[in-house]
Amino acid sequence: MPNQDGRLAFPPRTPFFIELQARVNAYFERNGLRKTGNRRLYLKAALAYLLFAGGYAGLVFYAESLLGAVLFALMLTQGMVLIAFNVMHDGAHGSFSRRPWLNRLAGASMDLLGSSQTLWQQKHNMLHHTYTNVAGKDDDLELGGLMRLSPRQAWRPWHRAQHLYAPLLYSLLTLFLAGFGDFHKLLTNRISDTALQKRAWWELPYFVMTKAAYFGYALVIPMLFHPAWQVLVCFVGIHLLLGFTLSLVFQLAHTVMEAEFPAGDENGRMPYDWAEHQLRTTANFAVGNRLVQFYTGGLNQQVEHHLFHKISHIHYPQLAAIVRRTCQEYGIPYHANRSLTSAIRSHFRFLREMGRAAA
């Protein structure tokens, strides 16, 4: 439970995290590496944008058959997924580049995809990364009662079937954010039970302009070349695939059988320090699978990401051994599912468990 002003407090840092930080810093110093992205990341970003631009141009200007439209739509969607996982995510965390303006530009990919970088940074960087799996604070758990994603949330009869209808809700993620969720946060000035930070003067007009630009290129321009109903069908189809992909990858890291859901005591004190909290609430999956690593932008290594979100995902494979060894030495859990398949099974087992009537 939070205290009267709604805040939660973590205990001071422990020797574990102090030692882990020292070992990670030593790794970068020893190898003469920057913690931000490198040429490999920039080439991946270029590929993502080429897929995006090629898919969009083909869909709007060249598609003349159903098959052509489907192929170009898939190309566009995969470009959007790669941008979200590999460019936007690192940029929003300030780890894409050592240049702040380039991080801001990379993070603005969120605006390009229809949502809001500013709101994402408060929802994801501040709340999710601080209060991971804490009901009422981590907005990723809050689906308006449609699903129960924490044992600390109220149970409802329809939750019995949530493992069946979850894929449909996941598919609606980006449509919801672009068309309603971002506007709702802005108008209510809240994310879950947390008030939005005070905005700079330019943020509201920037929000309006980027939303208008998004719907302009995603709907208005295509309607100049194709019937409106075809554009709408394609628009919704792309978002359903995009939303499902993004949702599933993020869910596999926190709403699985291995993860914990801590809460504060009556004074708002959390049971673990921040680093141990991240380790107990987060799980890796398919580590060592190069295709999964490439496609998800290192989000299959959420343990390393949550501990060192200012470090680019390019470095996570090398950091994993350091983190795992240090966890073993200090007796702190290090959760991981060996494959993508086992992580998906764990997630849907978790949904079934949460869907059972609470005792």
UniProtKB/TrEMBL annotation:
<feature type="transmembrane region" description="Helical">
    <location>
        <begin position="164"/>
        <end position="183"/>
    </location>
</feature>
<dbReference type="Pfam" id="PF00487">
    <property type="entry name" value="FA_desaturase"/>
</dbReference>
<dbReference type="InterPro" id="IPR005804">
    <property type="entry name" value="FA_desaturase_dom"/>
</dbReference>
<keyword id="KW-0812">Transmembrane</keyword>
<protein>
    <submittedName>
        <fullName>Acyl-CoA desaturase</fullName>
    </submittedName>
</protein>
<keyword id="KW-1133">Transmembrane helix</keyword>
<feature type="domain" description="Fatty acid desaturase">
    <location>
        <begin position="70"/>
        <end position="336"/>
    </location>
</feature>
<feature type="transmembrane region" description="Helical">
    <location>
        <begin position="69"/>
        <end position="89"/>
    </location>
</feature>
<feature type="transmembrane region" description="Helical">
    <location>
        <begin position="41"/>
        <end position="63"/>
    </location>
</feature>
<feature type="transmembrane region" description="Helical">
    <location>
        <begin position="229"/>
        <end position="250"/>
    </location>
</feature>
<dbReference type="InterPro" id="IPR012171">
    <property type="entry name" value="Fatty_acid_desaturase"/>
</dbReference>
<keyword id="KW-0472">Membrane</keyword>
<feature type="transmembrane region" description="Helical">
    <location>
        <begin position="204"/>
        <end position="223"/>
    </location>
</feature>
